[in-house]
Design brief:
Blueprint (H helix, E strand, L loop, with lengths): L7 H16 L4 H11 L4 H11 L1 H4 L1 H10 L8 H21 L3 H33 L4 H27 L4 H23 L8
Helix pairs in contact: 1-7, 1-8, 1-9, 2-8, 5-7, 6-7, 6-9, 8-9
Length: about 200
């Protein structure tokens, strides 16, 4: 039976996932100054790093295959999402505690993008299922883009402020600390409120 009304707590899932996707860029301004001005990396080197760390976005179909055909405990997304947000929390805590060097920056950015891209696939899988089931006509997708745009605006304003206001390495550690609040909140949501129909 199709019904245009689903609980707000379900919409909250899509808000949180896309907010994470937007807010994960909060430390990027600090990282840019770190790599360019402190480490003195060339534009070519930064381009190479970006290619390596963004690789996860080029192989998103692989994540789709995993969610479609290799669910965990009869769920397409539930456990993948939990694992990915635990990874994100762990990576952020590592940065706050130990700071960054060139190798750790590449590894952390690479793993972060894998988790975010994988979460995006899990999110879109559930979006398609619910959009069809409840005949929502793009409402969830619109909500996702609003969430991404809002966090993107926050990042553009406060990312630059943090980079300018605080010295290294404090600035990127503060930015990571602020961002980590969102994966933590999302993980709590996933354990206590997230609902997903099992694979039949």
């Amino acid at each position: 039976m199709k019904n245009s009304k689903i609980p707000f707590v379900t919409y909250l899932f899509f808000i949180l996932v896309y907010a994470n996707q937007g807010l994960v860029s909060l430390p990027s301004q600090c990282i840019y100054y770190l790599t360019r001005e402190t480490w003195g990396l060339s534009a070519t080197m930064l381009g190479l790093i970006a290619f390596i760390t963004q690789f996860a976005w080029y192989v998103k179909p692989v994540f789709g295959i995993l969610t479609d055909y290799y669910g965990i405990r009869n769920y397409r997304s539930k456990y993948y999402l939990r694992i990915n947000y635990i990874i994100l929390l762990s990576l952020g805590l590592y940065v706050i505690i130990f700071g960054l060097n060139l190798i750790s920056l590449i590894i952390i950015a690479f793993l972060t993008n894998i988790a975010i891209a994988f979460n995006d696939v899990c999110n879109d899988t559930q979006m398609v299922i619910l959009e069809q089931k409840y005949n929502l006509k793009g409402k969830i997708q619109a909500l996702q883009w609003i969430s991404l745009g809002t966090t993107g605006l926050f990042v553009s304003i406060f990312g630059a402020y943090i980079a300018a206001k605080f010295p290294e390495p404090l600035n990127y550690k503060i930015a990571h600390g602020i961002y980590l609040l969102l994966p933590l909140l999302t993980l709590i949501y996933l354990f206590y409120f997230y609902q997903e129909e099992p694979i039949k």
